[in-house]
Design goal:
Oligomer: single chain
Shape: elongated
Radius of gyration: 22 Å
Largest sheet: 5 strands, mixed
Distance between the termini: 51 Å
Structural class: alpha/beta
Order of helices and strands: EHEEHHHHEEHEEEHH
Number of helices: 8
């Protein structure tokens, strides 16, 4: 069984997959892993080729658009050790098109699709659960701790819906932030974060929102299990209406 290595980046992964598919007759007999740079590491290292990666992804979009989305969501999951499964998944996608997502009896397809769907669901959920708070300087801040690295697509989503405002999205877990200012979106790392003061207007709005949220609740129809299914407790930390609840 041939073993290949790559540099751990998304472009590197696509470069390696493109190379292997073009050179190997039986992808099922190939393994792919991130290079660890250890002394006795075995395998053929494939250098990242940005042009080759872009060309392969472009073909994937044309031949299997659903698989391209699956790969995109998979990269947000930051899951290690699934490169061989991704290689086999993409090889099948290039042969069978978007139908590949229905081949869940294949272990690699099931593994990749499951991981990607979880990341996609969290991204969709956070579009509704993210809470922006107005700061004293007039800008808005939203904090989150998602399981997946979704800050980039989430920021793109809000750059289209909150174009007239200046705002930040801060991923506490990864210490990364997205900033929208005067029509420009920027992303970067933050070594140290100090929570800025909220505006008095924001404090008043939050108080009103908590009152409204509590008032509209119908005790006879209270369904904690359903609520936690739609709004998992791991997100409550940054939800204004759920502050103080367990």
């Amino acid at each position: 069984m041939n073993r290949y290595l790559y540099d751990g980046t998304s472009e590197g992964l696509l470069s390696a997959v493109a190379h292997i598919i073009s050179e190997e007759d039986d992808v099922e007999r190939v393994t792919l892993a991130e290079r660890e740079n250890t002394l006795f590491e075995e395998g053929c290292y494939i250098s990242t080729d940005t042009a080759a990666a872009e060309e392969f992804f472009s073909r994937l979009q044309k031949q299997a658009s659903e698989a391209a989305y699956t790969f995109y969501y998979f990269t947000m999951a930051e899951r290690e050790g699934l490169e061989t499964s991704m290689l086999r998944y993409l090889s099948l996608a290039m042969r069978h098109g978007s139908k590949v997502n229905g081949y869940l009896t294949h272990p690699a397809v099931k593994e990749i699709v499951t991981v990607a769907r979880k990341a996609g669901r969290e991204l969709h959920r956070m579009k509704g659960l993210l809470r922006f708070e107005k700061l004293q300087d007039g800008a808005y801040l939203a904090k989150m701790e998602p399981d997946n690295n979704i800050i980039h697509p989430l920021a793109l989503h809000f750059s289209k819906r909150l174009r007239a405002e200046n705002w930040f999205i801060y991923d506490v877990r990864r210490r990364t932030a997205a900033r929208w200012n005067r029509g420009t979106l920027m992303l970067g790392a933050i070594e140290q974060f100090t929570a800025p003061a909220l505006s008095e207007e924001e404090k008043a709005v939050q108080a009103l929102w908590k009152t409204f949220f509590g008032t509209i609740a119908i005790s006879e129809r209270r369904n904690p299990r359903l609520q936690k299914s739609n709004m998992p407790m791991k997100y409550w930390k940054y939800l204004t209406e759920k502050q103080g609840e367990q």
